[in-house]
Write a structure and sequence with these properties.
By secondary structure, the protein is of the alpha/beta class. Helix content is 31%, strand content 16%. The strands form two sheets. A nine-stranded mixed beta sheet has the order 2-3-4-6-5-7-8-10-11, with helices on both faces. Strands 1-9 form a two-stranded antiparallel sheet.
């Protein structure tokens, strides 16, 4: 069996090899830089004149350098930048002032100091369908497609980028339908099973191949003449349990008349510092190291999501005006950044994003600026972000308190589009490290911009220093800005049963059966 499978795999890879193009002549292009993450970070520190970074705290409370989890020490600089005061010190009082003056100022600061700039010109992406399958996900019939977005690398063929995505749409509703784009690991949810007649053909061919590979197999099959090596998997469909709030998010979305697509971030840009001279960032930079305000992985993943949205805009089964973006943890950071910078996305579900996402940079609680700037997460951000963790530098030592912007303003860049902020509880694994309170404060502070633009915020005051975080399972979901802390762990799955009806209301969508 192993011998046969090995032979089949070898043949398959051989065919793939024959289909590949002739390797490019590397002598015609700038040499591809190969750095470790440590070397890449050291190169950026040298560009910025940084000699030493402050170490980040440990998340283990028993370590001597453990992170702070005491609220009385959490706010060394409690006053946040005012999202509605321009750099010139003028109060923003009209939506026109927001769109023309203040919003561009905030976006510029985030690009320069935190997330980096996407180049003005990026390569074209050509999407092709690799697999089309008709499936049942729970009880919902669905069209599932595995898609590949090839990024044009003709300017630098030494780097190849192919974006991996799966799109799943319900077939029992009248379209076009809204779609939630999720950062994750794409897979066809429930591949269709062969019919009994086709299974019989597969088993006949499989037995013949096995006997040809190993004649001893014939005696075994003769002893068990009714045995079929290839069998049908237990399939979903009519006998699947009814969808409820505990069902997987994909089932809940499809049952509610939504489609979803899963985008693989690593197929756009690797999640490590060594990969910064490859992926889309490396491709655009022709294999050379970044400059201090070049984009990091979060914006690269957001760029990939935007290219996926380009594709969805061409699909007549999709309502491209009702495409949302979702992610958890680092992908929650990426989802918020994507929503902030690409206004075509209609809504967002931001799960447990922590620092670099919803949590305030100025907070000294759990994960710190130094944690992101360290080797574990610096590649998510622009090189300039390292300045705020510098212990020794030609430009002096800075902290998160010196940032000209903070996460409440990142949320504000999404306004007035609906944003749902989700967290779990530390007892179930959504650790104190993520600073749920710091995220709540940021959401409260962002509300001033939502209200200026005619949208409803959390429905409480915008005094982020005095408002109390609601109890677990008590959602603030009456407005375009929503907050809910579920009683699960490091996931947003328990909040899907609340997000979907909230998004339906905000996007004015009602499922219509065929």
């Amino acid at each position: 069996m192993k011998k046969l499978m090995g032979l089949l795999i070898a043949i398959g890879f051989g065919c793939l090899g024959m289909a590949q193009q002739t390797p490019a002549d590397s002598s015609k292009y700038p040499r591809l830089t190969v750095f470790t993450a440590q070397q890449d970070q050291a190169d950026m520190m040298q560009q910025l004149g940084i000699k030493k970074l402050r170490p980040g705290p440990s998340s283990n409370q028993s370590d001597p350098n453990h992170d702070n989890e005491d609220e009385q020490f959490a706010n060394p600089c409690p006053q946040l930048p005012d999202a509605l005061v321009t750099k010139a010190g003028k109060k923003v009082t009209t939506p026109d002032q927001w769109w023309k003056i203040r919003r561009p100022e905030i976006a510029e600061s985030f690009e320069k100091e935190m997330y980096g700039r996407i180049p003005a010109i990026t390569p074209k992406v050509t999407w092709t369908t690799k697999v089309t399958d008709y499936e049942f996900v729970g009880r919902t019939p669905a069209l599932a497609r595995q898609l590949v977005g090839h990024v044009d690398n003709s300017e630098y063929p030494l780097i190849d980028v192919n974006i991996n995505m799966v799109l799943v749409l319900p077939l029992n509703v009248k379209g076009p339908v809204p779609v939630l784009m999720m950062f994750g690991f794409p897979a066809l949810p429930a591949p269709a099973q062969p019919s009994p007649a086709d299974l019989e053909k597969l088993n006949t061919a499989f037995k013949e191949m096995m006997i040809k590979s190993n004649p001893d197999m014939k005696a075994i099959f003769d002893r068990y003449p009714a045995y079929s090596p290839v069998t049908r998997l237990a399939g979903p469909g009519f006998f699947a349990p009814a969808t409820n709030g505990d069902s997987p998010p994909a089932e809940q979305l499809l049952a509610a008349g939504w489609g979803y697509c899963t985008l693989e971030p690593n197929s756009v840009q690797a999640d490590n510092g060594a990969g910064l001279t490859r992926g889309i960032i490396g491709l655009v930079n022709k294999g050379q190291p970044r400059k201090p305000d070049d984009w990091g992985a979060l914006r690269a993943w957001g760029w990939g999501a935007s290219r996926a949205l380009d594709f969805l805009e061409t699909d007549t089964l999709v309502d491209a005006k009702k495409v949302g973006i979702e992610g958890v943890s680092r992908y929650g950071k990426a989802a918020l950044v994507t929503l902030a910078f690409d206004q075509r996305f209609a809504t967002g579900l931001i799960g447990s994003s922590g620092k670099g996402g919803v949590t305030l940079q100025r907070r000294f609680f759990g994960e710190a600026v130094e944690s992101l700037a360290g080797s574990g997460g610096y590649h998510w951000l622009a090189g300039n972000y390292l300045k705020y963790a510098a212990a020794e530098s030609t430009t002096g030592s800075k902290t998160g308190c010196d940032l000209p912007i903070d996460s409440h303003e990142l949320i504000a860049l999404c306004a007035p589009r609906p944003v749902f902020i989700s967290y779990g509880i530390p007892e179930k694994g959504d650790a104190h490290w993520l600073d749920q309170m710091g995220s709540f404060k940021a959401t409260v502070a962002a509300g001033t911009v939502f209200k200026l633009l005619g949208a409803k915020d959390l429905g409480i005051s915008n005094d982020y220093n005095t408002e109390k975080m609601p109890p677990v399972l008590t959602g603030l979901t009456d407005g375009e800005l929503a907050w809910r802390q579920h009683n699960g762990g490091h996931t947003d799955a328990p909040n899907f049963q609340f997000f979907i009806p909230w998004a339906n209301r905000e996007l004015n969508y009602s499922r219509k059966a065929k």
